[in-house]
Amino acid sequence: MDPAGPSAEAINSIWWAMLAGAAAIFLLVGGLLAWAFVRRGDGTVSARTWIVGGGLIFPTVVLLMLLAYGLVIGERLLPRSGPDVVEVEARSSRWQWTFHHRRADGSVLSTPGVLHIPAGRPVDVVLTTQDVIHAFWVPRLAGKMDAIPGHRNVLRIEAGAPGTHPGICAEYCGIGHARHSFRVVVHDEAGWARFLAGEGA
Amino acid sequence: MKALRLHRAFEAIWGTPRGWRGTVCSVNHSTLGIRLMVTAFAFFLIGGVLAMLIRAQLATPHSAFVGPEAYAQLFTMHGSIMMFLFAIPMFEGFAIYMLPKMLGTRDFAFPRLTAYGWWCYLFGGSMLLVAMLAGLAPDAGWFMYTPLSSKPYSPGINSDFWLLGITFVEISAIVTAVDIVVTILKMRAPGMSLDKMPLFAWYMLVTTMMMLVGFPPLILGSILLELERAFGWPFFDVTRGGDSLLWQHLFWLFGHPEVYIIFLPAAGAVSTILPVMARTAILGYGWIVGAVIALGFLSFGLWVHHMFTVGIPHMALAFFSAASTLVAIPTGVQIFAWLGTLWAGRPQMKMPMLYLIGFFIVFVMGGLTGVMVAVVPFDWQAHDSAFVTAHLHYVLFGGFVFPMLAAAYYWLAHFTGRQYQYRLGVSAFWLILIGFNLTFLQMHIVGLLGQARRIETYPAEIGWTAYNLVSSIGGFILAFGIGLFLIDILLQFFHAPKSKRNPWSAGTLEWGMTMPPPSYNIASIPHVEGREPLHDRPDLALSLARGEGYLGEPRNGWRETLAVGTSSGKLDHIVVLPGNTTLPIWTAAVTGSFFLLMLLKLYWLTPLPLLALVAMAWRWAWLLGRKEDVGALPIGHAQSAPTHAEVQDPPGWWGSIFLLTADGTFFVSLLFGYAFLWTVAPAWPPPQLFDGGVLSLVTGVGATALAVIGARVASRRLQRGNGAGGGMVLIGLVLLIAALSMAILGAPSPTEHAYNAVVAVLLAYAVFHAAIALLMQVFVVLRARAGFLSARRSAELRIAQLWTDYAAGSAAIVLLAIYVPALTA
Fold this sequence. Notes:
The structure holds two protein chains of two kinds.
Chain A: H1 6-38, H2 47-77, E1 86-93, E2 96-102, E3 108-112, E4 114-118, E5 123-129, E6 134-137, E7 145-147, E8 153-157, E9 163-169, E10 181-187, H3 189-196
Parallel strand pairs in A: 1-5, 4-10
Antiparallel strand pairs in A: 1-2, 2-3, 5-8, 6-7, 6-9, 9-10
Chain B: H1 2-14, H2 19-25, H3 29-58, H4 68-103, H5 111-133, H6 158-186, H7 199-231, H8 244-277, H9 285-298, H10 314-326, H11 328-344, H12 351-374, H13 376-382, H14 386-416, H15 424-440, H16 443-448, H17 465-494, H18 533-536, H19 540-545, E1 559-564, E2 571-577, H20 583-599, H21 607-622, E3 633-636, E4 639-641, H22 651-680, H23 694-719, H24 727-746, H25 754-785, H26 795-824
Antiparallel strand pairs in B: 1-2, 3-4
């Protein structure tokens, strides 16, 4: 809802499609249920029509379509290498996020609590944790991914336009969980260059 | 009057003494079923109060009602109580009360185990309540993810309460599941083949089979985590070769089937009540049975959908996504079978039907959002957000609580013997339905907007205030509804006229007895011809009360009932059940003291309760059996049957089969953990592999062969009437224990690397089972010497042989699993 990037838009479109389908199915079941009380049953109902038609074929067709749709979108959301991909390491700990950018000259720029990204370019967030499991989630940009001890997970995000978005930890990580949040600052091209130069932070 | 005379005679055999003595010694299934249900309902109310506190906290932003520490305990206990201490015991209690009555028998297959299960549940649940009252309740979430629940991040006793208390309750669930499976498969009225069984029994059969396979992974996970917390064995510590993902796999291997374990019994109630409300027979009996079995299998293939965000390759996710959506198909079959049944009949809007409509509305919505979160990209957004909170409440409240409320009104007269009179239930229904939807409907939206689960506060400017305030108001309306329901039910017990028998004109056997039912259920056992015996023979209830069925005459003060062929339902033998005893409460107390000592970290004292348990189990088994062959006894209708002591596969043998099924799942989960760590955990391969010398391998494998062959030799000797000769099997088992102990002594220190820790657990598992087999074989030798065994009374030997085979087989696999990688490296 209210997406601000292509991944979030794709997920948002799935949501609206599924909501429409779910509403239709819900009304169908509700209608069949209500009608059962209105009509007078005479005991002659075909098990095949109801169970094979309604319970077997109908959901199978709907689900297969949904599955294919979800699979295609899911593939599209995966991190793939490309020339303009920006990589950031997000180090999580109780209860702080620190983001590490590697600049062209090999030096590392760290920003605690704020993730800086350029607009219009895919960003791979490499997730690591210093202690327990955390999860990185910027609701308006993309889905979420866990940061797990000993593992490195990669989440692809992308923002359409400059701005600021709230980000949170989605996996319960102890008493500071509710305040374990960060901000995402999306820069235009000039702002991004200034940030990398160490001026815009 | 003959019926009255019979009633007095049976009551003298099956009844429970009055007062506290009766309370502690009763093994009667009706009594125990009601106790389980009442306790589970009490836990439901406690869990509900915790939910109210959660909603009070979230009603406004920046709320200072409870702090984050208390809030963590609130949501952890709310989830744990509702899952482990309410839902499972509630349907178990209902099944324990109702199944024998539906199946046309007098009690459960293992009445003392039923009682043991109830006491374990009571003691384990009390442990968690004490923790809560002391402010030491578990606080790492009901899912207990490591490393948050591990020692460095949860140093207090809180997590130990969860791990030990829940494991204790799970033991109760496992033994009850064995009890229920064997009862359904063996203890039916003659003539009731599997395809004539009431649908509820089918649902319970699948549910309890799922429990036997689904609970062991969690028990294993809890034991491993407790070993890590108590002794530093690093199964989940990534720096020493563990992996926190192993916990998630074990937890969800249990956790997802758990959802269906909770839903299926409730769906079974729906399939029972709905056709009666529609005054017709269920549509598509065979289809429903097929769908339920399919659900049972499919539900084990989708645990990973709780882990879509842990970084698993996308193609693997696609597989689990497909499995997760396909599971909607068997559910769809049931929904349409129910709708078709309503169309075929003439539904009447009675109280149970009202709640069933609530079930349809809420559950279908929960199912639809369930399909949504099975779609991987959408789950990446919804996972761990309030959307999932809303979804799971629609599924569990809709799929379990609403059908259970319908069941409460449907079977109320069975418990009270009174007519339903008041209309408070209607108001309660509307409060519950409206309150529930107000609480959870818009929670979907606020979840998609970014409200994560398990937060105790949120900023005012983020715009979630209205959603949360409405949720909280809805929650309190729901609570009023539940309160009204409780008042309605209580009124029913005290102020209502007597009901006639079978008030709904149902066809299943549980209505063919006086209400409330006597301790022995039925004065004689019917011969069943169809699925609805009371419709086939309207006079059946009276005829049974006059003792005109099987076993209609009390004999020797025995608690007799009949066992049948597993699928055919053909009369097989007479089961003589054990009577009232205080053994179950003592055994449960000793089991509890073991967990208590673990909790208090008095590890050096724990061998005491373990030895006491051996002694009690010994006594438990020794009390049964007879020293002479009695042959076939008359059972009425000019037929006769042998007693269970003189058949090849008495209920005890079947019970062992199913207990070993659960045990085998535990073992396979352990091997899975070993393989998982080896392939996935970052700090593998381990720095040093096992080097215990080939001697223990050769001795161990040779000893397993000796034990297996020896058990068969002993069995053959008994069949030939030469007494039980257990020499060879005893030597084999002693050698096996020696070889395994040697391997343990040569094993590397379990605290250094997860590999070492897994090797230690594997060896301990093998030694433990070899010791059980040895005890059983010694038991059999002594029983033979005391005259309890003969060529016909050989079942105890066969049971000991089962456990010996299992011990030998698992020990051989353990040795190979440890030695093969070490020798080939």
